[in-house]
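# nightly structure sweep
# worker-07 picked up a monomer target from the shared queue
# config: single-sequence mode, recycle default, output format = structure tokens
# input follows
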Amino acid sequence: MYEHKVKLENIASEVNNAIAIIDLNNLQQQIQSLEGQTQNSHFWEDNQKAQKISKKLSNIQKEFQEWTDIKEDIKALEELSLTVNMDEDPSLATEFIEMVDLLEKKWQKLEIKTFLSGKYDSENAIISLHAGTGGKDAMDFVAILLRMYLRWAENQGFNTEVIDKSDGEEVGIKSVTVSIQGPYAYGYLKQEKGVHRLVRNSPFNSKNSRETSFALVEVMPDISLDIQAKINKDDLRVDTFRSGGAGGQNVNKVSSAVRITHIPTNIVVTVQNERSQLQNKEQAMKILAAKLIELAEKQQVEELSQIKGQPVQMSWGNQIRSYVLQPYKLVKDHRNNYEENDTDKVFNGEIDGFIESELKNKTLNK
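# output follows
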């Protein structure tokens, strides 16, 4: 009983510190400002902009309510702790202990948001997976990772959309790009960027020998149209071509696929999602803008034309995480040594432990 009273005191102190960082007054001011915009008679004339503002308002309102609720929970438990006594009322004391444990879990989940203070952390995410060294195993690994991230997004209640995909000739996926829409999707998933390594007995050779394969994970913020508008159109080369692979009637008949090359940086984005050429171009511009912003921030340059990023080798020694299925089962993050033994659980989308440990690791090492 005494232990849980101390636990409550510690949680209350941590929450108060976090609220000072989050600044609830600022959140409330943002809500009032956004609500004012939604009440404008011309608000829905630009439907795309209106939807973005409405979504932002909803997300901030939800965040504000989460902090308000935990403050109220703490206050109620603090008042209860002054009167509850195990000897006098064991049932009420047991209920108090259970409520403090639930509060602790609630706080642990909410605490992670205090680490998400980056410029684009609250935005949706665009995640791209690419097969590296390892042949068929690497392409199969990309398919496994795709399922893992889709399941993670589903567990979070996020929406997903595959916007570009290149299947392997026989098995797996060469590369795939997915839009993940949800509050702080980029803030969470940016911890996943880097080379991932798989060690297992290969199902693709007759000896079933142990093989190592690699995949690259890229994560970018899904940024707004006003940032895309700043890209100089003279710096772009736009090519259209026929989509490949199985799909709708327009595949291999209509040049709906789009490839955009940013000439100063030689960044190439391809989208062939079997939709209209206009829609594919919009998606390609969104991804290009995100890549340019990410590179500009990473290199800390003033002009996009100065960016000269070195490609990460998708091979041994560069991995941020290893998924080992043979001779033992272990998933380990090499940046902070966090690990899980239940590989099935990890591949089923339960990767919050890895995301949270790296968020904390980066915060502590700032």
